[in-house]
Amino acid sequence: MAYAIVHHFPGGTKEQYEASIAAVHPSRDSLPEGQLFHAAGASAGGWTIVAVHESKESWDRFREGILMPRMQQGIEGGFTTPPQETSFAVHHLRS
User: Fold this and answer.
1) pTM confidence score
2) CA–CA distances in Å: residue 76 to residues 23, 27, 40, 52, 67
3) What's the pLDDT tens digit per position in 67-78?
């Protein structure tokens, strides 16, 4: 079952997003293995990212194997605080 993650970075900016995404995605035009969807943009009070993975296990692999290690190393120009996170099992996904 697909699994969605919503990250909101209070005070986050487009510049911080661009630096962070460059460090955790394989390229600007491709998604990490297992990720089906990615959207991001300015939102009330900061920056919000929505990602949908094939499964919770896919998300966990990306989070533990790529996202967290790179964020813990520090990403120059990237987000400076952890996000507010919401996640849910996807009931319906259309592309």
Assistant:
1) 0.93
2) 9, 17, 19, 26, 14
3) 999 999 999 999
